[in-house]
TrEMBL record:
<dbReference type="GO" id="GO:0016616">
    <property type="term" value="F:oxidoreductase activity, acting on the CH-OH group of donors, NAD or NADP as acceptor"/>
</dbReference>
<comment type="similarity">
    <text>Belongs to the short-chain dehydrogenases/reductases (SDR) family.</text>
</comment>
<dbReference type="InterPro" id="IPR036291">
    <property type="entry name" value="NAD(P)-bd_dom_sf"/>
</dbReference>
<protein>
    <submittedName>
        <fullName>Gluconate 5-dehydrogenase/2-deoxy-D-gluconate 3-dehydrogenase</fullName>
    </submittedName>
</protein>
<feature type="domain" description="Ketoreductase">
    <location>
        <begin position="13"/>
        <end position="192"/>
    </location>
</feature>
<dbReference type="Pfam" id="PF13561">
    <property type="entry name" value="adh_short_C2"/>
</dbReference>
<keyword id="KW-0560">Oxidoreductase</keyword>
<dbReference type="InterPro" id="IPR002347">
    <property type="entry name" value="SDR_fam"/>
</dbReference>
<dbReference type="InterPro" id="IPR057326">
    <property type="entry name" value="KR_dom"/>
</dbReference>
Amino acid sequence: MSTGIARFALDGQVAIVTGGGGGLGSAGATALAEAGADVALVARNRIKLEDAARAVEAAGRRALIVEADVADAEAMVAAVEAVEHAFGRVDILFNNAGITDPQTVLDIAPEQFLRILEVNVAGAFHAIRAVARPMIARGYGRIVNMGSILSGRGMANRAAYCASKAGLANLGAACAFEFGAHGITVNTLGATVIVTDLNRELVRTQPALYAKVVERTPLGRLGEIEDLMGALLFLASPAARFVTGQTLFVDGGYTAG
């Protein structure tokens, strides 16, 4: 049995990171690599993936770029097959790909509402389904979904995002029951507002909204990318072997009251 910091080591493991070219995706990929994992980066934008791949390689691990849309079920099966062909296995899935479009229920177009669900929920489902069989065959796996504080509560002008992140957390809980007997854990990170490329402009243009988040947060600030990395590594590591079906809120205390 591993002891000390070795409980969190990922030496010899292989991780897939969806949305691997974005802020959280790239940071998560780098953190997983620093813990010892080789990393496959999955997204549609190859240029961003190349930057993330260089960061993984700078950490001393192998990187693989896979261009694929998580909303395409067949593409995700092919992506996992490509990873297995290149690295021989898949141990970890960081389901990070996601989109948002802050609008009211009355303003958002139905097709845009459905697109957010397609990427944030169905995309995660496609990725989970693609990795589940090889994980089951090996009797081991760590699946970490990128949720939100809105996985468990609502917010004005975020109906589509709230629906998608609540659905993602409950999808993870259901998968925990289905895959637990095979040594696979499935958990969700319930992050507060983490300032990334995805939302940086929103934070700048909607200061009143984000001031309310800060005011409610005991630690008194929005999240930074680094705040999330320890929780990700914990859930991805052998240290979390008896943690599954949970939403771990990384939110500075936002959901505490």
